[in-house]
Amino acid sequence: MFWWWAVDWAPDGDISEIEAADIADVMHFKGDPEELISALNEAGYIEETEAGRGIVNWMEIGGKIIQNKEKDAARKAEKREEEKKAKSSSTPVPKKSKGSPTDIPTKSDAEIEKEIKNKKDIKDIPPDQEKEPNPDPNQDQDQNPKSQQTANSSASPDSQTGEKPEKGSRKKVKRVYEEGDTFLKMANYLKEKIDGFAEAEGVLHLTKRSNMQTWADDFRLLVEVDGQEDKNLIRDVMDWLPKSVFWRKNVLSGSKFREKFGTLVLEMRSDKAKGGKGSGGGGGKSGKTPIPIVQSDTNPDSGPSDEEFEALMRAAEANQAAKAGER
Asked: N or C: which end of the chain has fewer CB within 10 A?
């Protein structure tokens, strides 16, 4: 976990500015962070130098992975640039319908009219080939009731608001959660919990302008879309959240609660099984900005790939074998 985190957040191996409590959070260590640092020093994973604290042999362990990630990012950027240039320089070619002959020259209206005049005198053209008069405006409604039905249905009142939408408007009407709605109650309950520890942490301003309608919709999606129908479990997680030193600083909205719900359930159960001391152990409060363990779960490129992880572990095994030889 520590090396994985270092690939993204300490690529040079320098962890002088990283506090012991943050390293404990990164490694999901529940005990005393200072004891963890001491153990890492004694085992030879980190070292104290004149320049500061660093990861031992980091460039041999994670250097190649970082270089490969940089090369891969540069290659993808170059490919996107080439595709962008090719798209801007290419001339669009009109698509032909299936079975149509190719390279057939088309004639303008003026040329067609000239041919008609050459072949026939205008008086010999039957009346039905002359310019048709304007059709009866009511004719389409009589002969095509479907179009009239469509027009009527498009002007029908909205089932939720009771108002008729404007002609041609496709704007989706937002759901409104009234006072007493279950999802709004859940949103307000979470807000009370967050405000309690946000004030203690000095970050109450981050939740001051929260939109509770949006939070209520997040809880609806959690239940109806994500399938989390156990509302007692949801309430238990909300009650536990203020006790977690790490997660209470990283879950400050309804959308983040929904996004991390599965992880929060696992962390809550693990924490209760170990005595309920809260994530982060005895590290105490840190005045600096929390350091993310991994990138966003929704980002497919977050963290090392399987190949990179295998390379990382091979390098670690070689490092351990070298240490064994020295002993």
From this structure: C
Rounded CA separation 253/213 (Å): 12
* Rounded Cα distance, 211 and 318, in Å: 53
Using alpha carbons, select from 295, 243, 276, 286 the residue that is nearest to residue 33.
286
Amino acid sitting at position 116: I
3-state secondary structure of 54: strand
As a residue count, the chain comes to: 327
Cα distances (angstroms) measured from residue 5 to each of 8, 10, 67, 73: 6, 8, 16, 19
Using DSSP's 3-state secondary structure scheme, residue 36 falls into helix
Give the whole-angstrom CA distance, residue 61 versus residue 54. Answer: 13
241-254: pLDDT as tens digits = 888 888 877 888 89
Question: Cβ(244)–Cβ(271) under 8 Å?
Answer: yes
Q: Is 68 within 8 Å of 11 (Cβ atoms)?
A: no
Take residue 221 and report the two structure tokens written for it.
């999606």
Which of 189-203, 236-250, 256-270, 295-309 has the least mean pLDDT?
295-309
SS3 state of residue 47: strand
Q: Please count the CA atoms within 13 angstroms of the CA of 265 that sit on its side-chain side.
A: 11
Locate 301 and state its tokens: 């490129």
Q: Rounded to two decimals, what is the model's pTM?
A: 0.36
Contact 26, 2 (CB under 8 A): yes
pLDDT in tens, 196-220: 877 777 766 767 778 889 999 999 9
Q: From CA 222, how far away is CA 182, in angstroms rounded?
A: 13
Cα–Cα distance for residue pair 148/138, rounded to 1 Å: 10
Q: To which residue do tokens 């041919």 refer?
A: 115
Distances (CA, A) of 160 to 178, 182, 183, 286: 13, 18, 18, 48
From the DSSP assignment, how many helices (H) and strands (E) are in the chain? 14, 2
Q: Angle of helix 2-9 relative to helix 63-89, nearest 10 degrees? A: 50
- DSSP annotation of 14 reads B
